[in-house]
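Dear colleague,

Thank you for sharing your sequence with our group. We've completed the structure prediction you requested, and as agreed, I am returning the results in plain text so they can be pasted directly into your records. Please verify that the sequence below matches your submission; if there's any discrepancy, let me know and we will rerun it promptly.
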Amino acid sequence: MNGMNSTNTEAGRFREESLPYLTADLPGVGGTIKNFDEDFVVEEVPKYEPSGEGTHVFFAIEKKGLTTRDAIARVSRAVGCQRRDVGYAGLKDSRGVTRQVLSVEHVEPEKVLAVSVDRLRVLWAKRHENKLKIGHLSGNRFVIRVRDVERGCLERAEAIVSRLVEVGMPNYFGPQRFGMRGTNAAVGRAALLGDCEQAITIICGRPSDTDAPGAKQARELFEQGQYSESFKSWPPGHCTERALCKRAERGPVEWSMLWRSIDRAMRKLYVSAFQSELFNRVVASRINKLGELIPGDLAWLHRNGACFAVEDTSAEQSRSDQFEISPSGPMFGKKMTQPKQDASELEEAVLKENGMNLDGRFSGASDRPEGARRPIRVPVEDSKCSEGEDENGAYLELQFVLPPGSYATSFVQEVSK
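Please find the predicted structure tokens below.
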């Protein structure tokens, strides 16, 4: 068994954002998560099964301590294909045990089944007609063990889970969306406001007592303008910071050019983190009436992800009560559909608090995101709470299924508090 030796650091950072609980009136169980790989298991629920015929091969993998991209890199090397040729339905991070389906074309199933690499094993392989693509997923099934819980935890957990099943889970973005230091959203905000110097300084500066010694020193040196020394001080793994320091040491520093030197995918990651923070703020503002439609809402249709304008809230509320639809929130961007009336005022207030344009589209900013809508709550299915004990001690086990794109951290945080 591979020890994780971690506590609820992710969850703790998430709560520092002061996001309210849906179940604030119900006591939590405390505890820690992700102490061991086996304490956090996620399995994809496929949208369809492979047919058994075709030039593509679908195959299920189980990985530990690897991201989906890490797994794809290892599989592609093992079967002799390019990374871009490996299909996947969703990305998973490296924490815990993940079972998910990938696909390759023009590779024999037997060759895929024979793949043997560290921290990854192939469970099955079957032929299919098409490549697996993002979104070909019905949901994710989680089995999470919470350790160091308080006495009487099962009854408390069952009461909280019952509320989440009845009302829905707040669809907050989890801490992994905001980076190890929790600062990605601040970087994205600065960039969208055109303050590239602040964006770069947040990435490379702003030393904290929580930083590793080498990283803290590198950040201090960066803020002192000693870019060459900062470059030398960064520990392995800080590729973006090192690249920025290397460019900055050439002087004089052109902050906007330095920002544009960052890989485009990374720039998008920072901006999407800020989008996510704004969305979380909108969810928080509606937490006490999560399923209640308000004038001007754009409702999310859960069966297919479509949105429509609510013309008559009283006529549509019964559909929300039955969890057929839910209010949606903003992933602000240039192509996002705008709500009207009360819903628009609520979302514009969140933008205004962050110094952004009230049109909700970041119209004056560079690196503008596309924008989209997202449900402010999601259904919780197949939930179960139980107590148990293994070689690592006692635990509370939570089992549940969430739609794609929703974060198990939000569920666990409601239970543990």
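Summary note from our side: The chain has a mean pLDDT of 92.

Kind regards,
the structure core
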